[in-house]
Structure formats: structure tokens, C-alpha cells
Amino acid sequence: MSGHDHPHEGPGRTASPYALRIRAIESLLVEKGVLTEAEIQDQIEYMDSRSPANGARLVARAWVDPEFRRRLLADTKAAALELGIDASGPVEFVVVENTPEVHNLIVCTLCSCYPRAILGRPPDWYKSFEYRSRAVREPRAVMREFGHEPPEGVRVAVHDSTADVRYMVLPMRPEGTEGMSEEELAALVTRDSLIGVSVPRAPARAR
């Protein structure tokens, strides 16, 4: 490994054509003075500091604080900043709330648009053609494969992310979590529940 996060060539390792192309573009941008190595490293460290744990913190706070929940739904960036999560930038973030009547599912049918500034890198399956096509065509079947299917009568709303707007799900608080601390609640929130293919863990499974 070099100082960057991505692997470079070495014994027994061959870079993919995509990695070689990215590296060539990176070198060209540095050579032309568009970017510096330090700026590239800063961006890598910025992305590495993002993870689904950020989303879990936001959800847990929304579960225990109705006013924060209201702010999270109305202005996600401002609410995230309250917890020290800087999601500033031109991309808009929208939090969609699961209710007894509606279950939300997030996809990017065109590529891999994802709330990276909050959740970090998307899982590989989120970027796959199979997920991107099936999430729209048969969302209940996709969720069933992740171990969850909303009850009959619950409407499934599929949100297609774009380069301008990224979505995150605010799942419903599990039953039996009364009296749990915010930290304990955050431990119930999984990455997949923030995308909507699943729901948070039951309390007993998180302990």
C-alpha cells in the first residue's frame, strides 16, 4: 500500500483497468496543477471518516428527540451538523421516514449515487446492475432476500438517487426499546436499514 487508500501494484497484485485509469487521471491532474497530492489525501481521509455509524447516530437521536427528528426531516445537513457530521456541499440530502403505512427503499438506477458524505462508501451490491434494476421492478422480492418484507398493506416507496439528491431512510424504532440509551439504540441501526432493504435489529440481537 502507498500513502493512498487504494492498492498499488505489488507482488502478486495486478491493478484493474479501472484502477489504472483512475491513477492515470490522478497523475495528470497533479501534473497539471489542478490538484495536489495533499488535497487528494485529504479527500481520501475525509471519505474514510464517513461510515454507517453516522447514520445510526442520526437515527438514534431522532428516535429520542422529536424536535431533532423534525429538523432531520426538514434540513438533513443542518441536523447532521448538530452531531458534528459535516455533509455540506452542493449535493442535497433527503431523509425519508418509514411509518406503519410506508416503507422506503433507496436505489440509484443510473450508477451508485449514495449519501457518502454521511454514510461513506456504498456496499458493492448497491452498485450492482442487478440491485439497481430489481429494486425498482420487484422491491419486495429484493427486501425478502435481505430477510425483511413489509407486511401486506404497507406501501413500498422507491427513491431513485441522483447526482443532485441523495436519500437516507429513517427506520421505525423497534419495539421493546423503551428505556434504552441513545448509544444502545444506535447499535440497533444497520447500514442496510438506512438503505431500506432491511430494518433495525431487534434489541435482543444487538446485545
Strand order in space, largest sheet: 1-4
Q: Identify the overall geometry.
A: globular
Total number of β-strand segments? 4
What percent of residues are in strands? 5-15%
Which quaternary structure do these chains form?
single chain
CATH architecture of the largest domain: Alpha-Beta Complex
Summarize the biggest pleated sheet: 2 strands, parallel
Pick out the low-confidence regions: 1-11
Please, what is the CATH homologous superfamily of the largest domain? Nitrile hydratase alpha /Thiocyanate hydrolase gamma
Q: Under the CATH scheme, which class of the largest domain?
A: Alpha Beta
The succession of helices and strands, N to C, reads HHHHHEEHHHHEEHHH
What is the gyration radius calculated from CA atoms?
Answer: 19 Å
Keywords summarizing the entry:
disordered N terminus; two-stranded parallel sheet; alpha/beta; 2 domains; Nitrile Hydratase, Chain A; two-stranded parallel ribbon; 207 residues; single chain
